[in-house]
Write a structure and sequence with these properties.
With about 270 residues, the chain is of the alpha/beta class. It folds into 2 domains: about 120 residues, no CATH class; about 100 residues, no CATH class. It is about 50% helix and about 10% strand. It contains 11 helices and 6 strands. A 6-stranded mixed sheet has the order 1-2-3-4-6-5. Strand 3, helix 1 and strand 4 form a beta-alpha-beta unit. The protein is globular and about 60 Å long. About 5% of the residues have low confidence.
Length: about 270
């Protein structure tokens, strides 16, 4: 398995938070995209097809034959329940004929893994997949220790996690990202509880202009320090909420100050 770039081609980003968590290629050339979705934005079915199509289409250069297209797999790890069956947490989709079930070809494969359902299982994990899903659910204590003892991959992941959390700067960036996710979940839930429409809830979740600008500037300051002061001033001059939303959806992918500046400039065009 070869790890590839962690971001989609810019032409597919548009104004969505389209960052891939993992993009890899197998020994046979198949592309594998693993994306984690914590918040239910009510579009995961269309979203995964959109990015699957982008990855599949993007394999060919100008004039190349279709024979060079390789299988493309998307794996969606969901922090919410998308399907109704309470006892089934893993769904797999292919392209098949409606009546006979005959497979058109094996190039499309889409997986959905629902973390809430695996957390609700009243038994011990029965395979590696269930162990990893429990790890993603952030279980603690003896249960996690028992899993780690028998799973070298998870044991290594826990070790790396501890090393990561000892780095103050990386920990601060992680906390900022986690806070943004928690805030969105809380605000959406609160707005729905008051009987507001989903569109209104989304507006509350995005917050006011100042709050968004503060979050962006805080990220820039923690990630790039004093060198980002000029860029922070540019952010403060932005008064349109939709522009700040586009920035905040992408700014966490910036690996350098130049990347951050490009994200901000593109969002304001």
């Amino acid at each position: 398995m070869e790890l590839l770039d962690r971001e989609l081609d810019p032409k597919y980003l548009l104004d969505k938070a389209a960052r891939l968590d993992i993009l890899a290629k197998t020994a046979t050339g198949a592309l594998v995209n693993i994306e984690v979705q914590v918040v239910n934005k009510y579009n995961i079915d269309k979203r995964t097809l959109f990015y699957w199509a982008g990855l599949y289409y993007g394999q060919l250069g100008s004039g190349e034959d279709f024979i060079h297209l390789r299988k493309t797999i998307t794996i969606n790890i969901l922090g919410f329940n998308w399907f109704a069956d309470a006892g089934k947490y893993h769904y797999t989709f292919h392209i098949r004929e409606d009546q006979t079930g005959e497979l058109l070809n094996d190039d499309l494969e889409i997986h959905f893994l629902e973390l809430r359902k695996i957390a609700g299982l009243k038994r011990k994990p029965q395979n590696d997949l269930e162990e990893w899903l429990l790890y993603f659910n952030n279980i603690q204590g003896e249960e996690m220790e028992e899993i780690a003892m028998g799973n070298p991959g998870i044991r290594k992941a826990l070790t790396i996690e501890q090393i990561f959390l000892k780095d103050k700067k990386e920990r601060r960036l992680y906390e900022l990202r986690e806070k943004a996710v928690r805030d969105e979940i809380s605000m959406l839930a609160g707005a729905r509880a008051e009987g507001m429409a989903e569109g209104e809830a989304r507006g509350i979740a995005k917050g006011e202009v100042k709050g968004r600008a503060d979050a962006i500037c805080m990220f820039l300051d923690v990630r790039f320090g004093e060198a980002s002061q000029g860029l922070q001033r540019k952010v403060r001059y932005i008064s349109k909420l939709e522009i700040l939303d586009r920035i905040i959806n992408r700014i966490y992918t910036a690996a350098s100050l130049d990347d951050a500046e490009a994200i901000i400039d593109n969002a304001t065009k």
